[in-house]
Amino acid sequence: MDLNGSVAVITGASKGIGRAIALTLAKHGVTVVLAARSTELLSMVHKEIAETGGKSVSIPTDVTSENSVRNLAIETLKLFGRIDILINNAGVGIFSNIVDMKTEDYEAMMNVNLKGVFLSSRAFIPTMIKQRRGEIINIASLAGKNSFAGGSVYSATKWGLIGFARSLMLEVRDHNIRVVTISPGSVNTHFSDKELSESQIIQPEDVAETVLFALTMPNRVNVSEIDIRPTIKPR
Question: Which of 9, 42, 48, 168 yields a CA-CA distance of 20 to 30 A from 16?
């Protein structure tokens, strides 16, 4: 797939993995629609992309709000008339034993990590079906395949995301829409253990390059799931 001239919507684009994906795709000629709640942080990413010669627009979005996501789709189509790539990256992680977990923390993770993916996918798939072409990439986590104490709710959302994506892939594949789920281990963002050295831990740019790999596979190939782990197990 030639990415030059494509339009990509990235949720959670204001920092971390989302920012890295936005910068990487923009360098390859993709016009990037930056979606996140923070107008200030989105402006900073937009400026970074412009400084490298890339193209982007920012649309402040709350992925847990149906109206906000609908506005994101309307504005994107108004500006570009198409949507080639949707990166469902927005996510939140709050780690605690169940007995100490606040109900609002449970709801926050469920709403962002699952409902947000549902709303965003539903908003853009009709246009992809009309185009007979589209790419949906979901950023999950190895926590969606491996359990750990203190991560019950977070892991549940990522298990759910993987299950959602597997079924969605079967729904849309005959419309020439590819669905890819990328599951990184600990990444050097606000989620990670700060004691790990940068030589041991996955970087946001590593995830961005994996997204690029999936997108540039031949159209006949759908790399439906990719796991990312450090080469050497961090100690």
Answer: 168
